[in-house]
Amino acid sequence: MKAQLFDAALAARGITKREYATFAHIPYDTVAGWKKRGIAPEHALTILKNMPIKLTKKRVRTVPIKRPKNIENKNYKILQAAFWGKNVTVEMILAKVQEKDSEYLKPIFKNIFYKDIVSLLGIETIIALKPIYPKIMEKKDAEFWAFLAKRYKDNR
Fold it and tell me: pTM above the 0.70 mark?
């Protein structure tokens, strides 16, 4: 069974891993290690079913992640596709772009069509990133983006 399922069952019953380990006579490190491995033993839920439910804790309610306002109407899946296989969210990507982090800028400029980049990041960001272009891409590409930023800046 997946460890995420086990953690969700613990949360639903209001039981901590330490309490579960004490009740089941299993070392706490073993119970905590299930999450790292990603797999919990099948008998873990059976033991959990036999535990008394704690009524003092409230059930954990999950809240959906809200998208930033500037990306609600845009196709953020294009941005996620540039980071395929990496565990990052759209919010993290946009925050790192604002911080001018080159590790996040390289995949964007390498894997996304330029019109989509302008649409997703916005003209202000493209202009603000102008000094970074020579550091993260080849000379020809850097000249293109610098020209594009200059052209948008002049057309304002």
Answer: no
